[in-house]
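User: Run a structure prediction on this.
Assistant: Running it now.
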Amino acid sequence: MKSMTGFGQANCRFAGYIVQMDLKSVNHRYCEVNVRIPREYMKVEDLLKKTVQQHLKRGRADLFVTIERNAEASRIVELNWPLAEEFQAAAEQLATRFGLKSSLDVRDFMAIPDLITFKETALVTDEEFQNELVACAEEAVLKLTQMRESEGAHLSMDIEQRIETMNRYLEQSYQLAPQVVQHYAGKLRARIQEMHQQPILDEARIAMEVALLADRSNIDEELVRLQSHIQQCNQLISEVEPIGRKFDFLLQEMNREVNTIGSKANHAELTTIVVEMKAEMEKLREQIQNIE
């Protein structure tokens, strides 16, 4: 069992690059990955997104990528020769027209905007660059997964305890189920006696009507289905594949059965158990929202 929340960080250095990746994930119904990367490296955004998606099944993940060039990176100086030549020609035209002496020196040329640019040389190919970034992203995902597994182990323990509590409530409900019908039948007979204020004339007819009405309060089928759902929950906990959606579906079915039991069983003690089960399922729902 894995949680959907976690954090992983990875750092790497290669060919004059310093890279840091921070990956965090939170709850989400589906798998959604967003990559934040400097604009000049946008071409590798999709590759990093696919790398993260290969390891996650559910959750919203945000990958923050920082890429810097260190002092060891090679740089070359480039001169804009056409611009310098145009500047020289313009100076000579001015000197000729106004009878001036041309006295241009290096300082004059150095003052020209954009005459000199610094260009970083590529110490790695595009493929090598992408491979290094992918390896860094996989390290971040590995650390994220480890944290999600660690939190998932704690969630698993808590969920197992709550399912065991549901089992105890289920056993108590099984013991009370026969009393529910008898209790309801007794209340019906008492109510009929009060209405007539005299001995019941047709005992067989009254008994049949009471039995039909009391049968509506029978909760055996709901208890059997609830027991089946709880058993499936126990089986899901040990599965390797993501179980969050299946667990959420089972919890909805369990909630439906418990609500039906509460509406059919007009019994004070069983009603108390139903309230406790609903409270326990609400706690289960909160935990299940964190499961991948």
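The longest strand covers residues 59-69.
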